[in-house]
Design brief:
heterodimer, A: 257 residues, alpha/beta, 5-stranded parallel sheet, 3-stranded parallel sheet, globular, B: 79 residues, 1 helix
Chain lengths: 257, 79
C-alpha cells in the first residue's frame, strides 16, 4: 500500500484512516490509540487554555506535530462568524493553513448548516486556508464546495458519534461518482465493517473519533479500523464481483464421473 | 501578579477578570500564567496577534484577551 498515497492540496498522506483525539480517558490512551490506528492525520479542537489549573498537560506533548498532520476543527461553532474566528485562531496557534471546517446547524443532530458552511468556506479560502468541509451526504452541496475551492469534501456517514454507519449509501455513491476531489467519510462510523464499506464504495479516506475512543478497548479498535480501511481500500481497487441472483459453480463440471 | 493600587490594571483573560501590573506585555502575561507562547494563539480585543507582537504589545486597562490552544477533539464538543 506504500504507493497508494492520498494527496490533498499537494500534501501526501500514507494512511487513509484519519482520527480524532476527543473522548479518550487520558493522553496516554490517546497516543496509544493513534499509534495503533496508523493514522497520520489527527483532528484537534480549538479551545481556551485553562488558566486557573496549569497542571493540565498539553495534547501536543503526546501528539508530536512533526510526526502527525494536526488538523484543527471548528467543532462547536454554530455560526459562520464563530467558524471563521476559530479557524483564524487555529492557524495562529499552529503551523498550517489546514482546517476541518464545521458549521453546526443543530445541537441534537449536529448536522452541518450547509448554507453557513459554504459561506464560511468562501471567506476562509479567500484568506488562503485549505478548507476541508464537514458536510452532509448531499451531492449538490458537495459539488458546490468543490466549485468554491475545497480540495476535498468530508460527507458524514451518520450523525457524529451515533455509530449508525453509512445511512445513505446511494447518496454517498453519487458523491463519489460526481465529485472529482478526495472524499473523506467523516462521522457516524460504528465498527470496522462500516469503515471497510466506505472504502469499498470508493471513499478516499475515513475520519472517525467516537468509534475508536468509545470502544471498550480503544487501542484494539484502533487497530481493527486500520485493517478495515486497508482491506476496504484493497477490495475497492481489486474490483468486486457483480451480485447475481443464482449460483455459479466454482468447481469445473468437466472430469466428473 | 495581583498588583494593587495606581499601578494596577484590570483586564479579562479567557473570560475571567484579572488584575495585573500596569504595562505588562502579552509575553509577560503568558510567562505569569506559565503558558508556552509557541503552543497558543492570542486574540486581543478580537484581533489575532502575531507571535512576534507578544513581546512588544503592552496590555491596557479593560483589554479582553483570549488565549487558546489545541485540545483533544473529534467533532462532538461544543464551544
Amino acid at each position: 500500500m506504500a504507493d497508494d498515497r492520498l494527496t490533498i492540496a499537494g500534501r501526501e498522506f500514507k494512511s487513509r484512516l484519519w482520527v480524532g483525539t476527543g473522548k479518550y480517558k487520558d493522553f496516554v490512551e490517546t497516543k496509544k490509540a493513534i499509534e495503533a490506528s496508523g493514522a497520520d492525520v489527527v483532528t484537534v479542537a480549538v479551545r481556551r487554555v485553562n488558566i486557573t489549573d496549569r497542571s493540565k498537560e498539553n495534547l501536543l506533548d503526546y501528539i508530536d506535530p512533526k510526526k502527525y498532520t494536526i488538523l484543527p476543527n471548528t467543532a462547536g461553532c454554530y455560526t459562520v462568524e464563530d467558524a471563521v474566528r476559530y479557524s483564524r485562531l487555529a492557524r495562529a496557534a499552529g503551523v498550517s493553513d489546514l482546517v476541518k471546517l464545521e458549521v453546526i446547524g443543530d445541537e441534537k443532530t449536529l448536522f452541518p448548516d450547509t448554507a453557513g458552511l459554504i459561506e464560511a468556506a468562501k471567506i476562509l479560502i479567500k484568506e488562503g486556508f485549505v478548507v476541508l468541509p464537514y458536510t452532509n451526504d448531499d451531492p449538490i452541496v458537495a459539488k458546490k464546495l468543490v466549485d468554491i475551492g475545497c480540495p476535498a469534501v468530508m460527507p458524514l456517514a451518520a450523525p457524529i458519534g451515533s455509530g449508525l454507519g453509512i445511512r445513505n449509501p446511494y447518496n454517498l455513491k453519487i458523491i463519489l461518482e460526481t465529485v472529482k476531489v478526495p472524499i473523506i467519510v467523516d462521522a457516524g462510523v460504528g465498527t470496522a465493517s462500516d469503515a471497510a464499506l466506505a472504502m469499498e464504495y470508493g471513499a478516499d479516506a475515513v475520519l472517525m473519533n467516537t468509534a475508536i475512543a468509545g470502544a471498550k478497548d480503544p487501542i484494539m479498535m484502533a487497530e481493527a479500523m486500520k485493517y478495515a480501511v486497508e482491506a476496504g481500500r484493497l477490495a475497492y481497487k481489486a474490483g468486486r464481483i457483480p451480485r447475481k441472483l443464482y449460483a455459479t459453480a466454482s468447481s469445473p463440471i468437466e472430469g466428473m464421473l | 501578579m495581583l498588583a494593587r493600587g495606581l499601578d494596577a490594571m484590570r483586564i479579562q483573560v479567557n473570560g475571567e477578570k484579572r488584575t495585573l501590573a500596569a504595562g505588562v506585555t502579552v509575553a509577560g502575561l503568558l510567562t505569569e500564567l506559565d503558558i508556552r507562547p509557541d503552543r497558543v494563539a492570542v486574540e486581543l480585543n478580537l484581533s489575532i496577534l502575531d507571535r512576534s507582537e507578544f513581546e512588544r504589545r503592552s496590555l491596557q486597562e479593560g483589554d479582553r484577551i483570549e488565549i487558546i490552544s489545541f485540545i483533544g477533539g473529534g467533532a462532538r464538543e461544543r464551544a
